[in-house]
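quick q for whoever's on today - can somebody do inverse folding on this one?? i tried earlier but teh output was garbage lol. tokens:
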């Protein structure tokens, strides 16, 4: 991998020279911003749930087989508050916004914490593909409407009792079919894509089409292989198929590029790309395993505004 400071300089130049910037963000970006689902942040916020259920982190606890809706919503109210409603925009997201705010940018993300919206990014330049903690839907998707949940979540937290249950009357019920409501998260076949979701998707498609007519910089942050077909693999395809596209990938563990060779797809490390892609493609791919925060600090004051 090329010297770190050379890659930082190259990133500065790419930001300055780009006509369009497309940001793709996964869980690794929020983790880098301090929105961690384990460790001290978890133990500080969920001591009573840890004691009662033996929870290890906020991710696995989401799949716990609670005995009642009252218990489940007591936990998820706290989870939603800690990871969305009760949070402001973090310094890292605000730093990223300060770098791209005067550029023609768009964001696609699998994160559900709404950190982009909380940090200044414009709503019509944003596509949250996997839903958001800030909305609830019918658990059976009987109709395509989402409902704001902030007031309900706050009331649930206020009225959670010593047994970690909410009052039964606070369990949200679908106004159309009478089934229980659920968070708007893509976890099963009942995920609701409302009109706003489809509008965001159209905006994303339109941006991509326009951006391919100019110099497009793809900034990818913290995307692994849970859902690579949403952002990671399409970004790989864009940089390989268009000579005006550059890809900067931030990932602690996986900076490989997906390439097709003899009819098969392979994950190729940066130092082996010479064997699979042209020098031009390798030149337009800039991987970082280093800290997102430290790297953005280095470029924040040096890009042209």
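ok took a stab at it. sequence:
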């Amino acid at each position: 991998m090329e010297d770190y400071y050379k890659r930082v300089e190259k990133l500065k130049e790419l930001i300055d020279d780009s006509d369009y910037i497309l940001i793709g963000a996964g869980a690794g970006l929020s983790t880098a911003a301090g929105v961690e689902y384990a460790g001290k942040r978890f133990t500080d916020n969920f001591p009573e749930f840890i004691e009662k259920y033996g929870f290890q982190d906020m991710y696995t606890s989401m799949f716990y087989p609670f005995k009642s809706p009252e218990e489940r919503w007591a936990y998820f109210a706290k989870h939603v508050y800690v990871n969305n409603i009760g949070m402001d925009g973090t310094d890292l997201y605000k730093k990223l916004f300060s770098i791209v705010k005067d550029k023609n940018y768009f964001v696609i993300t699998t994160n559900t914490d709404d950190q982009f919206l909380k940090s200044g990014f414009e709503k019509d330049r944003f596509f949250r593909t996997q839903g958001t903690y800030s909305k609830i839907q019918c658990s059976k998707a009987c109709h395509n409407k989402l409902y704001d949940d902030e007031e309900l979540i706050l009331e649930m937290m206020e009225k959670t009792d010593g047994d970690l249950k909410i009052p039964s009357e606070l369990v949200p019920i679908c106004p159309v079919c009478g089934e229980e409501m659920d968070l708007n998260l893509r976890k099963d076949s009942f995920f609701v894509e409302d009109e706003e979701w489809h509008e965001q998707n159209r905006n994303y498609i339109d941006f991509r089409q326009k951006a391919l007519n100019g110099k497009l910089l793809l900034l990818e942050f913290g995307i692994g292989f849970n859902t690579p077909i949403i952002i990671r693999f399409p970004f790989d395809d864009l940089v390989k198929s268009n000579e005006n596209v550059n890809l900067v990938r931030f990932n602690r563990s996986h900076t490989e590029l997906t390439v097709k060779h003899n009819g098969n797809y392979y994950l190729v490390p940066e130092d082996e790309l010479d064997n699979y892609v042209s020098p031009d493609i390798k030149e337009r791919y800039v991987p970082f395993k280093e800290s997102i925060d430290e790297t953005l600090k280095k470029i924040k004051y040096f890009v042209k505004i």
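fwiw The longest strand covers residues 131-138. also The mean pLDDT is 95. so keep that in mind when u check it
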